[in-house]
């Protein structure tokens, strides 16, 4: 915990085309100056996909909560984030005989290109966002991490600007007290 009693939060930001992002960029602007939050843009850090595993593990160890912020890509995450998870949270460090992430928290912060109705059994995607994010929840469990309810902004490019701004503000406020605030599990863009 930080000296103010707030958990240390590592936001692992993964967007392969951040210049084109509307919602994720606005969300990052809202959280950049929070004293308990470290924003780590892995596409800026590793444009060649060669991840410094030792440095990344040091970042993980220095934080209490890992927030994975990214757009939903093909029912998953962008490729570099998947590579990061496979390399950094590997057996021997985060699971198996390794337990370095035990007791930490995992929160997925997702933006989608579709409306919330698309993420229902009768919708375009034929399942809920919780179903789509189940592999991430299982990964958190494998790493002995506590799964926090995802934070989702649906219809990220099309949601009205005021709603997008409200989401960014609520995200920032949540990061100041993530374990005592029930913003997790809220879906904007309905």
TrEMBL record:
<comment type="similarity">
    <text>Belongs to the NAD(P)H dehydrogenase (quinone) family.</text>
</comment>
<dbReference type="InterPro" id="IPR046980">
    <property type="entry name" value="KefG/KefF"/>
</dbReference>
<dbReference type="InterPro" id="IPR003680">
    <property type="entry name" value="Flavodoxin_fold"/>
</dbReference>
<dbReference type="GO" id="GO:0009055">
    <property type="term" value="F:electron transfer activity"/>
</dbReference>
<dbReference type="GO" id="GO:0003955">
    <property type="term" value="F:NAD(P)H dehydrogenase (quinone) activity"/>
</dbReference>
<feature type="domain" description="Flavodoxin-like fold">
    <location>
        <begin position="8"/>
        <end position="174"/>
    </location>
</feature>
<dbReference type="Pfam" id="PF02525">
    <property type="entry name" value="Flavodoxin_2"/>
</dbReference>
<protein>
    <submittedName>
        <fullName>Glutathione-regulated potassium-efflux system ancillary protein KefG</fullName>
    </submittedName>
</protein>
<keyword id="KW-0560">Oxidoreductase</keyword>
<dbReference type="GO" id="GO:0010181">
    <property type="term" value="F:FMN binding"/>
</dbReference>
<dbReference type="InterPro" id="IPR029039">
    <property type="entry name" value="Flavoprotein-like_sf"/>
</dbReference>
